[in-house]
Amino acid sequence: MSNERNVNGSNSKKEQLEQFTTDDRNQKLTTNQGVKVSEDEFSLKAGERGPTLMEDFHFREKMTHFDHERIPERIVHARGFAAHGEFQVYESMKEFTKAAFLQDPEKKTPVFVRFSTVVGNRGSGELARDARGFATKFYTDEGNYDLVGNNIPVFFIQDAMKFPDLVHALKPEPHNEMPQAASAHDTFWDFVANNQESAHMVMWTMSDRAIPRSYRMMEGFGVHTFRFINEEGKSHFVKFHWKPVLGTHSVVWDEAQKINGKDPDFHRRDLWEAIEDGDYPEYELGVQIIPEEEEFRFDFDILDPTKIWPEEDVPVKIIGKMTLNRNVDNVFAETEQVAFHPGHVVPGIDFTNDPLLQGRLFSYTDTQLIRLGGPNFHELPINRPVCPFHNNQRDGYGRQTINRGQVSYHNNSLAQNTPATSTEEEGGYKHYEEKIDGRKIRARSESFKDHFSQATLFWNSMSKPEKEHIIEAFSFELGKVESKSVQQQVVDMFANVSTDLARGFAKAIGAKLPPEKPNQVTKKSPALSQENTIKLPETRKVAVIVGDGFKDLQVNEILDELNRKGIQTEIVSDQLGTVTGRDKAELEVKHTFLTADSVLFDAVYVIGGKEEDKNFYKKATHFIYEAFTHYKPIGATGAGRKLLDAAEMDKSPGVVIGEDVQSFVPKFIDAITAHRHWEREVI
To answer: Does the entry feature the keyword Oxidoreductase, yes or no (predicted)?
Structure first.
């Protein structure tokens, strides 16, 4: 098509670009009041590593506008699901913090946890390649404490000033509102290439971490550096971790895309069903702690949100466990109306000058004002603290408290100056008295400027299959990018991480290959690889493929033994109802080949049916082959053995053949425990 308008009246891409050039390209950036902006990268701080200042009118205007751009769903983290539970500390943390809920091992603190994707809208699929939110509200006796984190320990940007830009680039492109819940498009990768502090986070999102198997098998991180303050007023820097008891596991990309079509509610269904079945998800809380006097002993800035503290350098101390044991009663009233805020802290937990955290301390409350209709969102049942709260705040949209009396101010004499403030000894919150000495400046510390060392550390730490998946992820994402310039910029950028990585996906997308050079960083962190995660068979879901006329053998004993080991077995056949074996044994069918798919299960057990039932075996073969190509464990007994023989799968890793309980079940459980069998050759 030429420069003419096309038949439906829209402008061609060239015309759109020309219009952009005329209207915007040669203009200067201003505030909404028309004031020219001298700096749009950094928020105003008290010194390069100091806190963000409230007088930064440009930051507040930019962030306020962003916070109020979309209604009624969350701007980010719109697609979420949640559950109730409890937290219990293993041992007193009195040495480090005076936070009461971290003192008594006998004390159970109620919690509410919301998991979410970041980019997609409320109707999007849950298996998008994306970071996942992992937000926990602790209803403590001292007030609510919110640990608002993600399943990835770093973030794309270093300063909250850039957050609106990041999300604008990630969201569907505004000219056509596509693509939904995906980063595989031009504006996101253009942002990445031109904001290279994103390198480390991009490595995580291109890894298997961005497509988790389950919320129950997903790590959580507080991302930022916070402070622990003890009774003596001593400060330690701290990072928070949630470690899933079941280990950290993922699906493969082909599975993720198919699951989004087969069951876009896959993650929430998995969480809901696990809790309903009594398989309560468990997570251990870990902390990394650095004494204040050791702040500068590392080769990275501990306040930089694009950096991890490698666990080999700063070990994770496991201090407690969270158990999710109750589903929500109403998704809207609880999951949608819950309001998290990293500024909701209790005595003993305080902030640092991480410039991304400093901006979040403003943004979250500002966002809730429009999402939840005004300043009284704290009175919604899901947000109310379990301890009493008293203050002089009055009225506003959605007010539920009926205040009595004539006094609504402090100080006063008419009500004997109540409610009164509390001393620190009485539990009053006191901010850590950090010394601040710096000029008011828009800048970023020199210590924040290394964008590639930890991205390379992440790459070095991956196993061979994980590296292959990362290259494939880049190849897919950039294969969807139309701009050849953006593609090449990304290749050149990630050559700074690893030329093996960059050359791998450059070849796939037809870009110019960067010259080979050795990695400047050789350090590894084994804790970063999912190859080293905990592997347990409990709660794994096995599809049992069986049809009428199956050879009974010891089928019921095998299924019973798998169930005793905590493995869930669900019968899949060509029709619902009951299938009957040769010796009249009966099995209740839960799914048909039409309503189920191999991508919804962790493993497949093939029993088979009548040999003459060609239609059954045709459907079963497709089901099994797909599981095989996704490297899943496959077991077979009876007629199922012949099916695997015919498909030449029988001698492949992770494929278990047997006839009786003793010879089959232990080996099949071992195969399930391994999660995937990457050594398998898939053609």
So the answer is: yes
Tokens of 577: 């109802």
> What mean pLDDT is predicted for residues 170-175?
96
Q: Which of 58, 77, 241, 677 is catalytic?
A: 77
State how far the Cα of 458 lies from the Cα of 490, in Å rounded to an integer: 18
Active site residue 150: yes
Type of residue found at 81: F
Q: What is the pLDDT of residues 134-143, one digit of tens each?
A: 999 999 999 9
User: Token pair of 218, please?
Assistant: 């997903």
**Can you tell me the distance from the alpha carbon of 634 to that of 535, in angstroms, rounded to the nearest whole number?**
17
Residue 77 is a catalytic residue: yes
Given CA atoms 145, 150, 156, 162 in this order, what sign does their dihedral have?
negative
d(CA 230, CA 202): 36
Beta-strand relationship, 282-291 and 317-327 = antiparallel
Kindly state the tokens that stand for 344: 């909701």
Q: Which pTM value belongs to this model?
A: 0.90
**570 pLDDT above the threshold of 60:** yes
Cα separation of 283 and 278, whole Å?
15
Contact between 516 and 499 under an 8 Å Cβ cutoff? The reply is: yes
Q: Which one of 150, 151, 376, 496 is the catalytic residue?
A: 150
Domains, the chain: 1-28 (no CATH), 77-156+198-359 (2.40.180.10), 453-531 (1.20.1370.20), 535-673 (3.40.50.880)
Query: In 10 A of CB 396, how many CB atoms?
Result: 13
Distances (CA, A) of 577 to 20, 548, 599, 619: 61, 11, 23, 18
Segment 435-488, tens digit of pLDDT: 888 899 999 999 999 999 999 999 999 999 999 999 999 999 999 999 999 999
